[in-house]
User: Fold these one by one.
Assistant:
Number 1:
Amino acid sequence: MRPDRAAVRMAHWALLALPLAAGCSGVKPYPNTSEKNAVVHVKTDSASFFSRRQVDLGVYTVDTSKCTAHYLGNVRLENGPLELALPVGETVLLTYFFSRGNSTSAIEMMTPTRKGYRYEFEVSYVENSYGTTGVELAPGQTRGREIEHRRFRDCVSK
Amino acid sequence: MRNVVYAVMVGAALSGCAGTLVSQSADEFRERVKGSTRFGSTETIQVPRSYAQVSEALRKKANECLTVTVVSVSTERSGGITAPKGSRTTYNPTLTVTKEGTQLTVQAAQAKKALQLQKVPENGFYIFAADAKAAGENATALTIYLYTVDGRAKKIDSAVRDWARGDNMSCPDLNR
C-alpha cells in the first residue's frame, strides 16, 4: 500500500471512529477560511439520545495521476446550510460519514473544482435513510452538472 | 471469529453442499439462491414502469447509495478483559446493462480476512442480485436474488424495489 493511500485510510478510520470517541478525538478540523465556493444543505433529525444521528464531512485533495490523497480536515454537518471553501483547481474528495449508534457508513464523491464555479450539495440523514447529491454550477447558471459518487479506492493511476 | 462464522454461513447457506462453498460469480450466486429455501429467496415482481426508467433508476441509485463502507465497533469481553472490536465492510455494486436487460449485483467485502476457509471473490461475498427485463411498453420484470441471513442485504433489497417502482428514492441506512 502506498503511504498516501495508507494515510487516507487511517484518516478514514479516525473519522469513522468519531461517534465512538464522543467528541474526544483529535481529528483535524477543516480550515474553512478561504473564499466560499460551495454550500452544503443538511437535513437530519436528532432522534433519541441513544440512536442519535450524526453527519461529518471529510475533505481531501487527490492527485489523480498517482491516486494519492491529502487529508485537509473534517467538518461536522448540522441542520441548515453550511458555506464551504473548497480548494480550487484540484480534484476534491468529499467523504460523508453517517453515524448512528456504534456504526458509521461512509459515502464518497470526487470532483475537480474550477475557479468561478459553485458547488451545491444536499445531505440528509432522516429516519432509515441517508444520502447525498451534488451539482457543479458554472458562473451565472442555475442548472449544473451532477457530481458523481466516486470512491478513492476505485482511483486508477494514469 | 465473526468473520469466520460469516464466511462459513454464507458459503454453507448457498452451497447445496457442493465442493466450493462460496459463490465465485454472480451467476453461481443466482443458481445457489434459487436452490436454497433456508438462506436465500428469489422473487420476480412486475413493476409498472418502463424498462428504461427502471434501468436508469438502478444505475443512478446503485452508484449513489451502494458504494458504501460501513464500520461498526462493539466491545468484546474475553478472559475478564473488555476490549473494543471493530469490523469494516465495503459494499461493491456492479451494474451490467445489455440488450437483454439490466443486472445489478452487490458484494460485501470484509476488511479482516483472518481465516478464509474458501476462496472469497475479490470484491467480497455475493449477497444480492436484481435482474430487470422489459415486460411490455410500461412494465418491467424485476427478479430479486437475496441472501436472507444478511440484515443489510434485506435493506438493500427493500431499497432496490422502491427505486425500481420510483416510490422512495432514498438510500437505505446500512448502519446497524
Number 2:
Amino acid sequence: MPVLIYTENADGKFKKSTFEAVSYARAIANQNNTSLTAISIGDVEAQELAHLGKYGADKVLNVSGAKLKNFVNQAYASVIADAAKKESADIVVLSNSFSGRGLAPRIAVKLQAGIVDGAVSLPDQSNGKFLVKKTAFSGKAFAVVELTSVNKVISLTPNAYKIVEANTAATIEDFNAETKESDFKAMIKEIVRSTDKVSLPDADIVVSGGRGLKGPENWAMVEELADLLGAALACSKPVSDAGWRPHSEHVGQTGIAVSPNLYIAIGISGAIQHLAGVSSSKVIVVINKDADAPFFKVADYGIIGDAFEVVPKLISAIKEYKASA
Amino acid sequence: MKILVCISNVPDTTTKITFTDNNTQFNTAGVQFILNPYDEIALARAIELTDDGNGSVTVINVGEVSTEPTIRKALAIGATDAVRINAHAHDAWFTAFQIAEYIKANPFDLILTGRESIDYNGSKVAGMLGELLDIPSVSVIKKLNLDGNVATVEREIEGGKEVLTIPLPFVAGCAEGVAEPKIPNMRGIMSARTKPLVVVEAVAVETLSEVISFETPAPRGQVTLIPSTDPAKLVELLHTEAKVI
Ligand SMILES: Cc1cc2nc3c(=O)[nH]c(=O)nc-3n(C[C@H](O)[C@H](O)[C@H](O)COP(=O)(O)OP(=O)(O)OC[C@H]3O[C@@H](n4cnc5c(N)ncnc54)[C@H](O)[C@@H]3O)c2cc1C
Ligand SMILES: Nc1ncnc2c1ncn2[C@@H]1O[C@H](COP(=O)(O)O)[C@@H](O)[C@H]1O
C-alpha cells in the first residue's frame, strides 16, 4: 500500500514546504517498504511535476482542468481522498499550510482516518504502534499522538523536516478524479499574492519587530535588514493590533507559529505568548535595549542596545560580509 | 439568521505548560481556563451579524461540567443560549462528531469556530464539521461579510489572501481581523446566569487517535552577548558558529 503525498503548488510552482513534505513522505514509504505516489492538482507543467521524483516520488498523478485550476477546499479534498482509495494508500501526507489545514480534516473524515496535524518528526513504528510527535500548546510543548485507525492522515509543519534528494525517476500519469457538483459551492473571486516577499510560514530567516520600534515609520530599516537576508517580516501582537503592520505578520500564541533557522527579534520583550510561537526557531537573536528583557533568556545571541543604533550598524556589517563572501 | 459558535475551554495564554504522571498528563494544577481567544473573535462576529435583532447566536461546547464558567462567559459576552455536550473532548474527531450530530437535529445557517484551539492547535474541527455535514468549510479567515444568503470571506494564504463567496450554510474558522473580541458588561454578566444552557449527552463514536505522552522543548543554552558597538561580530558568529547565514 503506497503512501500518498498531496503536493501543493502556488501559481504552478511547488513550494519549499511541498518538497519537505515529499521528502518526509518518502521516508515514511521507506519505513514501510512501499512506494510513494504524489498527487498534484492544478496547472502544473510536466517539467515541474518531474521535480517531485527528485525528492522521492515514484509516481505522480496529475489532475488538471479548468474547474480544478484554483484551490477549492471541498473539491480538492474529494480528489485526494479518491486518489487514496484508488491507489489503496493508507497513509496520506500533506503540508500543514493554510490550504493543508482546510484539506487534512476533510480527507481524514472521508477516509475514516486518524489525523496528526503539524507533525514535527517521522512516525515511530518500532513497537507495532504508529506514534507521531506534533507541536502542542502553541509551541510550548510537543504531544506524541498514536493513530489507532487503519488509514492515517499526517500534515507536516513547515521547516520541521529537511529536504532530502532521492533522485527517483517519477512516472507521470493523468488522473481523473471524482468530484460532486456540491463540492464547488465556494467560489474564488480574487487571489492576492505579494510575490516580491518571502512568505512567513515557510521562511528560513525571519526578522521581527516589536513595540520598541516606536511606530510604523521606523520599519524601513527592519525591511532593509530582511531584504538583505532574504528574510520574511514578522511582528509582535501589539504592533499588528495598532495597525503598524498587517495581522498576517503577527507571530506568537495567537498568531502564526514559525520555526525558521534564524529568528531576529528587535525591540520585542519576549512575553510568554510571543515566545510560544517562535521558540522552536533553531537560532534566536535578540536586540533589545533592556538587559533584563525576558527574551534574552531564550536567545542564542543577544545585543543589548538601542535598535536605532544597532540595526543600521548590523545592516552595514551584513553588506560588508556579503561583499567579501 | 441562526448562528452556531463552537467554543473551547483552554489554558490561559500565560500558563507555564507542565506535565505529570511521567509526562502523560497535562498538569492543570493552578491553571486558569479561558474561552479560546479565536473563539472570542468568532463569537464577536456572530453577535455583530445578528445585531439587527433578526437572529440568534448559540454557543456549543463539548466538555465536562468544569467548562461551564467559560460557557457562561460566552453568554455574558452576548450569546443567546448555550449547549454543552457532556463529555471529555477526547480529540477533534470526537468533538466534531458530537457537534455535527447536534447540528443535524438542530440546523443553523452559519457555523463559526476559531482558527485553532490554543491547546492542541489542530485547526481540525471546522473542516471535519464541514465534511460531516457535507457543506463548505474554510479555515483561517480574516474577514466575513454577509449579503443575504451569500457570504464573502477573506482567507489567509502564504504571502497573501484569497477572497471567496460561499452560500450559506458553511463552516468557517475565524482569526484576527474578523472582529474585535467583546468584553462583557455588567448587564451581560447578570443576564448570563439566567440564559438557557442545555446539557446534551454525547453519542458513542469510535476513537481514531490517542495522546500518548508530552515533551517540553529542550532548554536553550546560555545567550552569547555581543557588544552593541560590534554587530560585525554577530554576523561572523551567525556564519561560522551557528551556520545560519
Ligand atoms: C490572550 C493573549 C494572547 C497574546 N498573543 C500574543 C501573540 O500571539 N504574539 C505576541 O507577540 N504577543 C501576544 N500577546 C501579547 C503579549 O503578552 C505582549 O504584550 C506582547 O508580546 C508585547 O509586545 P512587544 O514585545 O512588542 O512590546 P513590549 O512588551 O512593550 O516590549 C517592547 C520592548 O522593546 C524594548 N525597546 C524599547 N525601545 C527600544 C529601543 N530603542 N531599542 C531596542 N529595544 C527597545 C523594550 O525594552 C521592551 O523589551 C498576547 C496577550 C494576550 C493576553
Ligand atoms: N471541545 C470543544 N467544544 C466545542 N468546540 C470546540 C472544542 N474544541 C475545539 N472546538 C472548536 O474548534 C476550533 C478549532 O479547534 P481545533 O481543531 O482543536 O484546533 C476551536 O477554535 C473551537 O471553535
